[in-house]
Amino acid sequence: MKIVVTGSLGNISRPLAEALVGQGHAVTVVSSDDGKRGPIEKLGATAAIGSISDVGFLTETFKGADAVYAMIPLSFTEPDLAEYLRRMAQNYAQALKSAGTKRVVLMSGWAADLVKAENAEHYFDGLKASLTIMRPGSFYTNFYQSMDLIKGKGFIGKFLTFRYSGIWALLTGKTGVLMGNCGGDDRIVFVSPKDIADAVAEELVLMPKEKTIRYVGSEEMTCNQAAKIIGTAVGKPWLKWVLLSDKEMLNGLKMAKVPEKLAETLVEMQAAMHSGKTLENFHCNQPKMGKTKLSEFAKEFATAYHATQH
After folding, report:
1. How far is CA 65 from the centre of its chain?
2. Do you know which InterPro entries this protein is assigned to (predicted)?
3. What is the pTM (predicted TM-score) of this model?
4. Fewer CB near the last or first residue (10 Å), C or N of the chain?
5. What is the DSSP string of 50-83?
6. Which residues partner with 165 through β-bridges?
7. pLDDT of 107 over the 70 cut
């Protein structure tokens, strides 16, 4: 099959491209960075260098493809996340329609149907294509975005530098905490990008007649259990994940100079997880869990953590 993978060589797209090439598919990887051309070709794939904001580029890239994996990278330079997601989703939908793509696998999020700004899924409903929407849980790799915070860096006033994972960290002596308006004993489904890539690879070669939604997870646990696993791996077994109120989280984001609309969206996303509605939806769909445990990822995280401990 001829398969187009968007997302450059990111946490999901790289292992996905590797898997597809290994299965004998003709793979094209889309990246906005010309510097990725060499690494993409080294994988045995073809590089398509351009922006997903360019409908013409996307259309030409999708022409002749049997299947497309579509993802919209989150941007935190955009003051209005909802408008950005809407614009990128419309670009994809127009290009896929013009190219006549028959199979589309769309990356979304497990709170997409609960958070207005994050739900760009419906822009793909009008496609005359077999569509599967992937709704993964909270990425293991989000912890990388909080590495400096876990080390006790990045203070802004009484709050700390914002990271996409929604995790705030504070270390004072031997006291370590992660903070968010989802935390403490809230139960979360965490997921390895490798397990997501495996699931996407499975879906791309299928052709369901109706739109399908697939939830993806690797391990379910409380936020505090996750904090302990990560903390133990880096030599800080006392690490805790403290639950903040929505108001406290919003004020912290504003103090960190996150644009107001974006801050409100991020608080809403975590509030959906805190409410338990995301977990309820996940259980209702009864997905098969991936094979990568958080303890395995924690070893990789610890290696990176200690490599920058200077």
Report:
1. 24
2. Ergot_Alk_Oxidoreductase (IPR051604), NAD(P)-bd_dom (IPR016040), NAD(P)-bd_dom_sf (IPR036291)
3. 0.90
4. C
5. --TT-HHHHHHHHTT-SEEEE-----SS-S-HHH
6. none
7. yes
From the centroid of its chain, how far is CA 205?
22
Give the pLDDT confidence of 268-279 residue by residue, as tens digits.
989 999 999 999
The β-bridge relationship of strands 175-180 and 187-191 is unpaired
Contact predicate 77/257, CB 8 Å: no
Judged by DSSP in three states, 42 sits in helix
Pair 99, 36: CB distance under 8 Å: no
Pull the structure tokens for residue 32.
Answer: 């906005």
Q: Could you give all domains of the chain from N- to C-terminal order, each with its CATH number?
A: 2-137+192-217 (3.40.50.720), 140-188+220-283+292-307 (3.90.25.10)
Please say whether the beta carbons of 129 and 104 come within 8 A: yes
Strand order in the sheet with 168-172: 168-172, 175-180, 240-243
Does the CA dihedral 28-89-286-266 come out positive or negative? positive
Which residues have CB under 8 Å from 196's CB, separation 6+? 12, 134, 136, 216, 290
* Confidence (pLDDT) at 173: 34
In 3D space, the residue among 17, 12, 15 whose CA is nearest the CA of residue 28 turns out to be 17
C-alpha atoms less than 13 angstroms from C-alpha of 254 in its C-beta half-sphere: 9
* 230: pLDDT strictly greater than 50: yes
Confidence grade of residue 149 (pLDDT, cut at 50, 70, 90): low
Phi, psi of 228 (to 5 degrees): -65, -40
Q: The tokens of 191 are what?
A: 């997921």
